[in-house]
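TICKET: design request
STATUS: open
ATTACHED STRUCTURE:
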């Protein structure tokens, strides 16, 4: 399963609350901790409970932050990923109540726990 397929199967992480962002300039890595990757189906019969995770973007070549990161309860509205070539991804996280994170990188992982 590709990372794009995984994100789509998780509903673009709709309504996942962002707990923290961690940027390492030396490693060119961004980590975004979220409270529940299953948040899109919370309240539905197939919801099996909260699963916290960290979205890890490695070998970042472009990072654009257009959001008020001081807002409490900042949530993911939608997450889309496209391939920009071999081993290069363009990722766009739309945020609620407003804003956007745009990230270009070589790899994306979802690390649960």
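STATUS: resolved
RESOLUTION: sequence designed for all positions
ATTACHED SEQUENCE:
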């Amino acid at each position: 399963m590709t990372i794009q397929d995984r994100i789509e199967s998780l509903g673009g992480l709709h309504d996942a609350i962002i707990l923290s962002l961690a940027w390492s300039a030396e490693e060119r890595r961004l980590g975004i901790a979220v409270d529940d990757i299953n948040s899109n189906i919370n309240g539905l019969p197939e919801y099996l409970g909260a699963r916290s995770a960290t979205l890890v973007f490695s070998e970042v070549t472009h990072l654009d932050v257009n959001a008020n990161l001081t807002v409490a309860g900042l949530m993911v509205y939608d997450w889309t990923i496209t391939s920009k070539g071999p081993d290069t991804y363009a990722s766009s996280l739309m945020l609620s109540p407003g804003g956007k994170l745009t990230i270009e990188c070589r790899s994306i992982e979802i690390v649960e726990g």
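CLOSING REMARK: The chain has one domain: 3-112. The chain has one helix and eight strands.
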